[in-house]
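I can't quite decide. Please look over this sequence plus C-alpha cells:

:::
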Amino acid sequence: MWIYILQGVGLGFSAAVLPGPFMAYLISQTLSRGWKRALPTALAPLISDGPIIALCLLVLSQVPTWFERTLYFAGGAFILYLAYGAFKAWRDFDLNPATYSPETGQSILKAAMMNALSPGPYIYWSLVTGPILLRGWRETPINGIGFLGGFYVTIVSSLTAIIIVFGIARQLGPRVNRALLGISAIALLCFGLVQLWLGISG
C-alpha cells in the first residue's frame, strides 16, 4: 500500500504546484480577500474531482475529441469571467476593505466549477492518475484508498501553503498587493484565451 500512498503524494504535489487557471484564481482570491477568506478554496478539488474521477475511470483515456473541445470552450469562457472578477478587484483595490464580503461558499463553488470545466483534470485522471488508481484498486481496495488519500492530503496541504505564502506577500504593502493582483488577472485572461484557442484549433 505504501507505494501507492507515495505515488499519490508525489502526483498530488505536482498537481498542486502546476501553473494553470486554478492556481491563478487561487492567488487572485488570496490577494484580493486575504488568506483566511481564500483558504477554503483549497478544498475545491475535493468537491469537483469526484465526478471527474468516476467519469475518467469509466472511459479511461478514451474521451472523445468533441467532448474535450467542449470543455475547452466552457472552461475558457468561465476563466475569462473569473479574470474579469480579478480585474474588478484590481481596479477597485483602493475601496474600503469592509466592502468585501466573505462569500466563502461562492469562492469554493467558483473554484470547483473552474476545475470541473477545465480539460486538465479529465486528461490528468484519464492518462496519469486514473490508471494507477484503477490498478491499485484491482489489487486491493486499500491500495486505491491509500493512493487517493495520499493524493488529496498532499494537494490540499500544498494549496493551503500556497495561499498562506501569497497571504504573507499581501502584507508587503498595497502597491505590491495591487500589482500581484493585476498579474493574476492577466494570467487568468491568458489561460482563458488559450483554452478558447485550443477549443477552436483542437
Residues 95-102 have pLDDT under 50 and may be disordered. The two ends are 39 Å apart (CA to CA). The chain has one domain: 22-33+40-201.
